[in-house]
Design goal:
Layout (H helix, E strand, L loop, with lengths): L1 H4 L6 H26 L7 H12 L9 H9 L15 H5 L7 H23 L4 H5 L2 H9 L3 H14 L4 H9 L11 H7 L3 H22 L1 H18 L4 H4 L5 H9 L1 H25 L4 H15 L12 H14 L5 H22 L4 H14 L13
Helix pairs in contact: 2-8, 6-9, 8-19, 9-10, 9-17, 10-12, 11-16, 12-13, 15-16, 16-17, 17-18, 17-20, 18-19, 18-20, 19-20
């Protein structure tokens, strides 16, 4: 049926209208997330606020002291508390929020990080700004008050700026030292494309932030960070369905469904596919930085065994790159419907994971990568990211 195959009814005006409706609904969902975050169960943001609070008070090493964090975080009235496991450079980001009361800090953190992500994404796709504003992949990161919006802003900025401002692009990649597994493909991608200015800038940025954090927070903080590795390892011990269903990797879902051996095999294949993508993308897209960036960001969702739905706001880049390709070159059969499904996938797969008993986001990420890759091969494959 042409209704599904061509989806001509999904015009630009209708897409914008649906986006505005989705944005309004998202505000209601976000308000509900805030109320829950202020409740007795707590929220992920407690870890950031607690770390920022002790850092602003002059005790940055206390960010990694579990006893200190339990006392500080439960002091907000929450029964739950969370270990802080991010590297010390992230303390630069969270310390200012630790000066604020927790309920206000939550709101300001979400507003600032969403604003940075929206700015980077609208900069990349100015004519598609309504789709940026309503993106469900950003909603889930905002609802958790996690750092996926901040890391997403860095990845989107890096992919968009690489062609014209390689040093700034590399600096943004280096800043992902706050969550390094999101930048694991960057060295392969930059080296394969001969983007040495960006490559060097990424290294300088990452090492510089680590050095600054050492100077600012001291050796005790760096040593404290190494103790947080045990907390991260404990999360991965055993097969905890509730925890694994919140993850978005082939490794996690294979582990849940088939055990550790299958997880390592499937996760290894996924990682190798992601690395191969980063090495071959330049040739596939004839040197087009935005197109190869779309492929690499889609592959980033497949590269690490440790990833959650709230980490995925960066998928706005490959998703809207595909929308731009369709607007400029024509949509292929069923492509509009596929893009609608992939647009909502980061939020929808998380909502469906517990009822289904499996998180389908790894399949969605693979489908997104396949669609991006299928747009390559022709000389006119790249039209830039300014859709």
């Amino acid at each position: 049926m042409d209704f599904l195959r061509r989806a001509d009814w999904l015009t630009r005006d209708r897409a914008r209208g649906y986006a505005f409706l989705l944005a309004i609904a998202s505000l209601a969902l976000l308000a509900n997330s805030y109320l829950k975050a202020m409740g007795p169960d707590g929220t992920d943001f407690l870890a950031f606020w607690g770390a920022g609070h002790v850092t602003a008070a002059g005790d940055p090493a206390g960010a990694y002291d579990l006893a200190v964090q339990e006392r500080v975080q439960t002091g907000t009235g929450s029964n739950g508390w969370f270990a802080f496991v991010n590297p010390p450079p992230f303390l630069f980001a969270v310390a200012p929020f630790g000066l604020l009361p927790f309920p206000i800090a939550w709101l300001v953190w979400v507003a600032v990080t969403w604003g940075l992500w929206a700015w980077a994404s609208v900069r990349a796709f100015p004519r598609l700004w309504p789709l940026v504003i309503a993106y469900p992949g950003a909603l889930i990161a905002a609802g958790h008050a996690q750092n996926g919006l901040l890391t997403g802003a860095l990845l989107v900025f890096a992919a968009h700026e690489l062609a014209k401002r390689p040093a700034l692009s590399g600096a943004a990649i280096g800043a992902l030292v706050i969550k390094p597994h999101l930048a694991v493909l960057a060295p392969f991608w930059l080296a394969a494309g001969g983007k040495w200015r960006a490559f060097v800038a990424a290294g300088v940025s990452a090492l510089g932030l680590v050095a600054l954090s050492w100077l600012a927070f001291g050796s005790a903080t760096l040593e404290g960070y190494t103790t947080s590795w045990q907390a991260s390892a404990l999360l991965m011990e055993g097969i905890n369905p509730d925890f694994l269903l919140r993850m978005t990797t082939f490794f996690s879902q294979a582990r849940l469904l088939a055990g550790d051996s299958a997880a390592w095999v499937v996760g290894g294949i996924s990682a190798l596919l992601a690395v191969a993508t980063s090495l071959l993308a330049w040739r596939r897209f004839h040197g087009d930085a935005a197109a190869s960036g779309a492929a690499v960001l889609a592959a980033t969702a497949l590269a690490s065994p440790y990833l959650f739905n709230y980490d995925l706001p960066f998928l706005i880049f490959p998703t809207l790159w595909l929308v731009g390709q369709g607007l400029d070159r024509g949509f292929r059969d069923y492509e509009k419907l596929a893009l609608v499904a992939l647009y909502v996938a980061p939020y929808a797969t998380r909502a469906a994971a517990l009822p289904l008993g499996v998180n389908l986001m790894p399949l969605a990420a693979l489908a997104l990568l396949a669609l991006v890759w299928s747009r390559g091969g022709a000389r006119n494959s790249g039209t830039g990211s300014g859709a």
